[in-house]
Structures are given as structure tokens and as C-alpha cells.
Write a structure and sequence with these properties.
Blueprint (H helix, E strand, L loop, with lengths): L5 E4 L3 H12 L4 E5 L22 E4 L5 H11 L3 H8 L1 E2 L4 E4 L1 H14 L3 E5 L11 E3 L7 H11 L4 E7 L2 E3 L9 E3 L11 E6 L1 H13 L7 H4 L11 H5 L27 E7 L6 E4 L8 H8 L10 E3 L2 E8 L1 H4 L12 E3 L6 E2 L1 H20 L11 H11 L8 E2 L15 H19 L4
Parallel strand pairs: 1-2, 1-7, 2-6, 7-16, 17-18
Antiparallel strand pairs: 3-5, 4-5, 8-15, 9-13, 9-14, 10-11, 11-12, 12-13
Helix pairs in contact: 1-11, 2-11, 2-13, 3-4
Bound molecules: flavin-adenine dinucleotide.
């Protein structure tokens, strides 16, 4: 065993997994968790890996993104996945847990491990040296946030996300939507997919949007005046007046509909979201609508009737760094070798994505300590694709992302039908994962 310990800040989903991966490689982990002495506004207990939202880890089916990620985590001997399976409750095709038993299992496993030292204290700054994994999550407190900001640059640490929905490009109806840039040539070379709304469609859309149900904000979000600053949810904007959207994010100016040669009443624009051009985000559509409502209302937009949503919009308190700018593909800070980030701080969304990034950060922390090359998984695997996105996305417009098949490079052949296509993605991911992971 190496005498040097790796410090892990935060024993949430990512930090608990990172500490486990470090210890199972024979290296000591110092796991620093501030609860129960200091609680976050969302956590209630002192248990590690406390789930503050849903008790579900998503679909367990092999041809779903969550199912594929579970398979990869299983191959990597994930503590969180094992604890989830050991405390599972019936949930159809999903992996859902008894949240208390789940958190207790994780806490007990780590507490019993001889190589894990548990420190119950608030980390107020990043350790000055040594190998460190920072996994203090979406509610990282002010003191540690200031220290992270000092290490990463003030401008590259964010406290809120305002996510616009993302759809798969192939699910947009190109008989209705057309490709063009504002005032650019509508000849197929434009950067945006444009969905036109006529008067009746626009009015119906505004009515539906303003009547749709929204997600209740948490108290600490409601009371934070900075929350909506400069970034209004689309439904709030729509409620300000019938024309507000047409003069704002749905402005048709400079967008001649090739079928009429005229500007429509309004245009919803979709911007390419990944280099492979498989994902498109709805520009200016940050929203707090409930998820079912979002799908229903957004499918009223011509061209999006059969849209497949790979991410729905949301706005909430969330601390994350500009990972594409700051992190290497091994989740290490470019400017400080030995300092790794995992979990929601990297911009990973969703429980399993947070576990996967925590796992990789832990594995790579050990590799850094031992002077070995860092591990990056192929971008054709689900965990590899997520880390690839986080470290290669457009840094100017970076927002958190959940694991989804749209992040994977396109298949070499076109496969019709979503289920068959997903099964092909999953089978390629497993093959590539197995060949790459032979060394782990
Ligand atoms: C506001 C909010 C937003 C969320 N957004 C999402 C979302 O977008 N998608 C999603 O799937 N889930 C979300 N969740 C749910 C969930 O928090 C995350 O998915 C998941 O828990 C993140 O894992 P993590 O390990 O990064 O952070 P956490 O599970 O929150 O773990 C971080 C841990 O670090 C500890 N900690 C924090 N600061 C310090 C410190 N200074 N010193 C010592 N310990 C510290 C915390 O107590 C906690 O135990 C959200 C929860 C909240 C409260």
C-alpha cells in the first residue's frame, strides 16, 4: 500500500464511489463529509450517498442509457451500484431503492473498510497539495466554493443551471423545419433548425405554455434573488404578454420560411448541441414546466410533433465548473495535476452519471499517485461518452448533461427504429468497454 492518502471531499454519490475505488486499489482514502455537523439545504441525515430527489436510478433494461451505464458500473465494481441492487424495491423495469437502507449500506461499507478514514468536518478550502478528488456536489458551501473559484477562475464556476430541452436531431420533422441562420441563406447551409409557427399555432402554443403546470421551487431557491436573473423561464416570459415570445426567443426576424418565402409569426430555433450533430437544443427554452407538461406543450411546435427528448429543461440551484475548459478527459484540473473533480460539480447530471464521474475521478487519482497513465473510456461507451461530452462540449455555452445515447458517436450504419438503434448502441458500447477495460 502507498503511504500517501488521497483526500476525497464529500461523501455523496460521487465521493463515496471515488473513495471505494481508491480503497479497493489498495490506497488509503481520507473521506471528508460535513454532515451531520453541517447539513446542506436539501440533505437530512449524516448518511453517505443520501438521495435527495427520486429513489430511482433509472431503467435497468439493457437497451436504455441508464441500463447500459449500470452494466458499465457493475464491470467496474461500483459500490453505489452494488448497494442499489442490494436494497432494490420493486419498480417495474427500473432500479429503485429503499433510500434509507441504500444510504446505510454505503455508509457501513465505507466505514468498515480498513483503508478508508472518515473525517466528519466541513472542508473550507481545497487541500494545498497531494492528490484530491472534489465531489462536494450541487450544494457546495460558500467557503469551499470560493476556494474552488480561486483554483478554477471565478468566471468558470456556476451556481445555477438553466437547462433548455434537447431533442435528437433525427426526431425533428424536416418536412416542416428548415435549416438556416437568421438573415443567412436558407439554402441548407444555416446553423439552426427552424420550426415555424403560424398565427393559430403560436396562439395555441402560448395558451398551453402559460396554463401548463410548473415545478415547485425549493425554499432556498425561491428565496435567492439571483435565481432568475437574466434568464427567465419561457413560461414566465410568455405570461408577460401575447407577443413577448415572438419579440423574444421565438422571433421570426430574418427567417424566410422556404415554403412561403415569408417570415412566419414565430420561429422556434434549434441549435446543434454536439459535434456529431445528433443533438439539438431549443434556443432560449429554459423552463420550469413539469416534465410531462414540457413534452406535451413542446410537441405542439410544428416539426417537433414526434420529438424525442434526450434532456428536458429545468432551472435550479446547482454548483458546477466549466468542465470543457478546465478538465482533462481524465477529469483532472488542467492547471493543477492531482486535483480531480467528480459528480455534479463536473456538470454531470443524473444519479448514475454522478456515480460514473466519481468512479473515474477515484480511479485516476490512484493512477496519478502511482505515476500511471490516466484512464479514459472509449466515447462509444456510455460513461466514456458522458466524460467526453463534459470535457469537449462548447465551453461558451456549457450546461450540465445526463447520460443518453445521443452522446454516442453515430453507428456506422443507419438502423431504423429507436429500440433497435438503442440495442445496437448498447451492444457496441459493451464490446468496446470490454476491449478497453481489460487493463483495469
Ligand atoms: C439543488 C439540487 C439540484 C440537483 N440537481 C440534480 C440534477 O440536476 N440532476 C440529478 O440527477 N440530480 C440532482 N440533484 C440530486 C442529487 O443531488 C445529485 O444527482 C447527486 O446527489 C449528485 O451527486 P454528488 O456526489 O455530486 O453530490 P451530493 O450527492 O450532493 O454529495 C455531495 C456531498 O458533499 C458534502 N459536502 C458538500 N460540501 C462539503 C464541504 N465543504 N465539506 C465536506 N463535505 C461537503 C455534502 O454534504 C454531500 O454529502 C439535485 C439536488 C439538489 C439539492
Amino acid at each position: 500500500m502507498s503511504p500517501e492518502k488521497i483526500t476525497v471531499l464529500g461523501a455523496g454519490l460521487a465521493g463515496a464511489e471515488a473513495a471505494w475505488q481508491i480503497a479497493r486499489r489498495g490506497v488509503g482514502a481520507r473521506l471528508v463529509e460535513m454532515r451531520p455537523l453541517t447539513l446542506t439545504p436539501a440533505h437530512r441525515t449524516g448518511n453517505f450517498a443520501e438521495l435527495v430527489c427520486s429513489n430511482s436510478f433509472g431503467s435497468a433494461l439493457p437497451d436504455r442509457a441508464a441500463g447500459q451505464l449500470q452494466w458499465e458500473l457493475e464491470q467496474l465494481d461500483s459500490l453505489i451500484l452494488a448497494a442499489a441492487r442490494a436494497t432494490a424495491v420493486p419498480a417495474g423495469g427500473a432500479l429503485a431503492v429503499d433510500r434509507e437502507q441504500f444510504a446505510l449500506t454505503v455508509t457501513e461499507k465505507l466505514s468498515a473498510h480498513p483503508l478508508v478514514e472518515i473525517v466528519r468536518a466541513e472542508a473550507r478550502e481545497l487541500p494545498a497539495g497531494g492528490v484530491v478528488v472534489v465531489a462536494s456536489g450541487p450544494l457546495t458551501g460558500a467557503a469551499l466554493s470560493a476556494s474552488i473559484a480561486a483554483a478554477t477562475g471565478e468566471r468558470h464556476l456556476y451556481f445555477y443551471d438553466a437547462l433548455a430541452p434537447i431533442v435528437s436531431g433525427e426526431s425533428v420533422d424536416l418536412d416542416l423545419a428548415w435549416r438556416a441562420s437568421r438573415y443567412g441563406a436558407a439554402d441548407g447551409d444555416g446553423d439552426y433548425l427552424n420550426c415555424p409557427l403560424n398565427d393559430a399555432e403560436y396562439n395555441a402554443f402560448v395558451d398551453a405554455l402559460t396554463a401548463a403546470e410548473t415545478i415547485e421551487l425549493r425554499d432556498f431557491e425561491k428565496n435567492d434573488a439571483r435565481f432568475f436573473e437574466g434568464c427567465l423561464p419561457i413560461e414566465v416570459l410568455a405570461a408577460r404578454g401575447r407577443d413577448a415570445l415572438a419579440f423574444g426567443p421565438l422571433s421570426p426576424k430574418g427567417l424566410d420560411d422556404p415554403r412561403t418565402g415569408r417570415w412566419p409569426r414565430a420561429v422556434a430555433q434549434l441549435r446543434q448541441d454536439n459535434a456529431a450533430a445528433t443533438l439539438y437544443n431549443l434556443v432560449g427554452f429554459q423552463t420550469n414546466l413539469k416534465w410531462g407538461e414540457q413534452e406535451r406543450v413542446l410537441r405542439m411546435i410544428p416539426g417537433l410533433q414526434r420529438a424525442e427528448f434526450v434532456r428536458l429543461g429545468q432551472m435550479h440551484r446547482n454548483t458546477f465548473i466549466n468542465a470543457p475548459l478546465l478538465l482533462t478527459p481524465g477529469l483532472e484540473l488542467k492547471t493543477r495535476p492531482g486535483l480531480f473533480f467528480g459528480g455534479q460539480l463536473t456538470g454531470a447530471e443524473g444519479y448514475l452519471g454522478n456515480v460514473a464521474t466519481g468512479l473515474l475521478a477515484g480511479v485516476n487519482a490512484v493512477r496519478r499517485l502511482r505515476g500511471e497513465p490516466l484512464l479514459t473510456l472509449p466515447a462509444t461507451t456510455m460513461s466514456g461518452a458522458l466524460c467526453h461530452y463534459l470535457t469537449h462540449a462548447d465551453s461558451a455555452a456549457f450546461q450540465p448533461m445526463k447520460a443518453n445515447f445521443g452522446l454516442l458517436p453515430p453507428l456506422p450504419v443507419t438502423i431504423r427504429g429507436k429500440r433497435a438503434r438503442y440495442a445496437a448502441y448498447a451492444s457496441r458500447a459493451r464490446e468496446d468497454f470490454e476491449s478497453a477495460n481489460g487493463h483495469e
